[in-house]
Fold this sequence. Notes:
It is built from 16 helices and 15 strands. It is an alpha/beta fold. It has 2 domains: 5-167, 2-Layer Sandwich (VC0802-like); 179-404, HUPs (Rossmann fold), CATH 3.40.50. Helix 5 (189-199) packs across helix 10 (321-331) and helix 7 (245-254) packs antiparallel against helix 8. Residues 399-405 have low confidence and may be disordered. The chain binds adenosine-5'-triphosphate and magnesium ion (MG).
Amino acid sequence: MKYTEIMVRYGELSTKGKNRKDFVSQLGKNTRAVLKGFPEVVVKAQRDRMHVALNGADDLKVIAKLKGVFGIENFYPSIKLEKNMDVIKKTALEMVQQQFKSGKTFKINTRRQDKSFQYHTDQINNMLGDFILENVPGISVDVKNPDIAVRVEIRQNGAFLSSELIHGAGGLPVGTGGRATMMLSGGIDSPVATYMAMKRGVRIDMIHFYSPPYTSEQALAKAKQLTSVLAGYSGSIQFIQVPFTKIQETIKEKVPEGYLMTIQRRMMLRLAAKITTDRHCTGVFTGEALGQVASQTLESMMAINDVTNLPVLRPLVSMDKTEIIKIAEKIGTYDLSILPYEDCCTIFTPPSPKTKPNLEKSRKFEKYIDVDGLMKNALENIKITNIKPDENFLNSQQDVFAELL
Length: 405
Ligand code: ATP
Ligand code: MG
């Protein structure tokens, strides 16, 4: 059975005024962008919901794309029919037969927008219900908790039938929550944090520190590949690579070992903050979680945060590693994250970093290096690439999504 239209229901949104309008128009824009490869599809984002007319496009492929769009709570793939009860009956029966296994229950749920249609809601429910009971031996009605719920909508332009409710990604449309930068390593956490930032509507610019020759070309490529997977949820992402070798070498030479980690982090955040304000972004996201490693204690966060007044946002702050890994697997970043390329931090990690660095000492030890000169040099050598969504990844997900149908 091939679907002809998808009815999309919005997630949480302010019910009033301009916010709602912005939400709806941004969601329409984002949806059209992910469906760019399907020129026949027409997206109409209206006040209460969005209609995606397939016009012959492959329904499974379109559904797979919609599943990644933030701001969509759920959607119903539907079949458009002429407003003729015989046709509606026949299709409703087919839908139920496709999903029926013995002992199952069903319910018909009709909404009638077109008040001129010759039958009213209860009549339609009864006519279809009776027809299915007559033709599907062993089935029964359960109006409270049916196994199969067939939705019928009688609208001006046709009758629409659906029987599957598919969960969307939830959250808010990317672009409605402002713009921020993300400090992306090649690890498991920061890609998950990126996903969560995007889910709240924030458009992300990626910042990645790399340290050739200590880190390989593969490590950089991996960060870009992760960005490409994440771009599948937001549209293209600007990837800003910042050379960090000179800074790390200088710190290693000048700063006492216990503070290597803290001063490196302070330099990273200072650079990230400068890039953030230069690009008119208003916050920096990281993948830190409390207590995970030495640099992620409250004391450490205080010593690092000291270098900026910008909000430093940590969506994973109170999550367990196992919870984070589950999300990483779901969003398709895990397999890339565990590839074994050295990150710039792991290489310069001292054997016993201070878990409770002292703020005053951090400030003092930092005076041993030329902060401004090193910053200037790194900023002059940043490279920015526009990274597009990874079509291969999205296509590979279709089987996963198809299983839902
Ligand atoms: P992740 O899994 O994200 O790498 P982690 O558990 O390895 O995190 P750390 O190495 O302490 O933890 O890094 C903490 C955070 O600092 C990262 O989540 C990321 O936001 C940022 N960060 C670390 N390394 C880099 C890097 N090379 N480039 C950009 N940001 C980085
Ligand atoms: Mg890491």
